[in-house]
Amino acid sequence: MNLCFINIILCPLLCDNMLYELAEEAKREVSKYSDDYEIFLDSSELLQLDSQKTDLNFAKEEINLGIGVRVIKDGKVGFAFTSDMGEIAKTCENAYLNSKLNSADENFSFAEVEKLPKINGTFDKKFRDLDLDELTDSLKSILNCIEDNGCQTTSGGFSAAEGEVLIVNSNGVEAYDKSTGFALGVSINALKDGDLATAYDSTSSCLYDLDGIKLAEDLCDLAKSSLGGQHIETADKDVILDYHAVTGLLSTFMSGFSSENVQRGRSRLVGKIGEKIVTEGLSIFDDGTYDGGLNSGVTDDEGTASRRTTLVQDGVLKGYLYDIYNANKDGVKSTSNGFRGSYAGTPSVSGSNIIFDFKEHALESEINDAFLVTDVLGAHTANPITGDFSVEASNSFLIEKGDKKPIKKAMISGNIYDLLGDSVAVGDEVKQRGSFIVPKLLLHDVRVVGN
Predict the structure, then answer these.
(1) pLDDT, tens digit, for every residue of 159-198?
(2) Domain tally for the chain?
């Protein structure tokens, strides 16, 4: 239920009592129509800065508050939402009226009361002392650092947010959580003798601990080292995926673990519980309780207590991700993976913090023949059912006998399921990028298509 992530949409910290007062009002109103209900209150405060080149051209401070109400009446589910707290009564009535338009479905139900976990590292009180002036000074120092390192900023952004969520339902659930999130992203150019190279990087954290200067220095090093790119011959090669590249391809892979996709036959993992699906040296977990995780929280967005779920153990598929609805269809318990974009939407199956835990690690310094890819473009075009992909390699390098040569343009293609069957972590450092907590990754026999 924690709301801090790279594309931050987080919540304004109102007085805790105010959310509970609004929830009590909604309970009184919705009880007029149904004894089976769920109330989702979502409050957010956001500070955001954007720049074009070195000019700060956009700044805003935004406060939002909204409520979403679901009811189950005669087996039919209805939903309505509003950002006008004077319309709570009408919203509850609309949820009931909307239920009459739907068909009865026995698989809808709401979360039960459970003991909630304690999560550390997802809230930073420093947010209360921040203002746009401080964020402006921080972003300016980062942009100046980029210029001092001989590169040009094309765009940048810095955002900070604080939020709280309260979930109340007719089963007695009262789940409250608050979190903070901070994010920085910069896109730059490097130019030398008419040759242009671009680079982008971002970082985010629940805590106000972003090192923007290091990000700027590392990004400039990447852009400048990408200058003078050579052509590469088409061949099957070992490929090292940096953190952004890993997460780009793994999004396709993880869609196969959605119970909804499995039930609809849209997953390669249908019927494969107990079978080996990736290398034996890899275990995969979904962990909504992970300390400091960008998607950690005491519950998911249905009020189900967060937990650690084993999806793959030593290469063998152990289970899928479930929200309450899809869990009821399979006669199992929710894995606490019912998430929504905001109060204006209903829950659906999604991962929280996806951890890739490898037993084997290779040292990048000892890899003498490989193709290094910093990021990929076009990962959304991959086939979510088969796992086939063909993407453009961004800021890529050919590693030969210890030498690292920039490559002007190339594509990589293959099947992410098959490639993970013989994959190894590169180094032992893991980073969180979006939902994924991953190391760099070494894949064998990937098709590298040169131009």
Answers:
(1) 999 999 999 999 999 999 999 999 999 999 999 999 999 9
(2) 2
Alpha carbons within 13 A on the beta-carbon side of 7: 3
Please report where in the chains the tokens 């910290």 appear, as a residue.
13
Q: Do 195 and 245 fall into the same domain?
A: no
Range of the domain at 194: 16-222
Q: Mark whether 218 and 236 lie in a shared domain.
A: no
Q: In terms of DSSP H, where are the helices of 192-339?
A: 212-225, 243-254, 259-263, 324-330
Contact call for residues 426 and 362 (beta carbons, < 8 A): yes
Give the pairing type, strands 316-317 and 403-407: unpaired
* CATH number of the domain where residue 203 is located: 3.30.2290.10
User: Are 183 and 158 contacting, i.e. CB atoms less than 8 angstroms apart?
Assistant: yes
pLDDT tens per residue, range 198-233? 999 999 999 999 999 999 999 999 999 999 999 999
Task: Tell which of 222, 238, 271 closes a domain.
Answer: 222
Taking the complete model, does pTM exceed 0.70, yes or no? yes
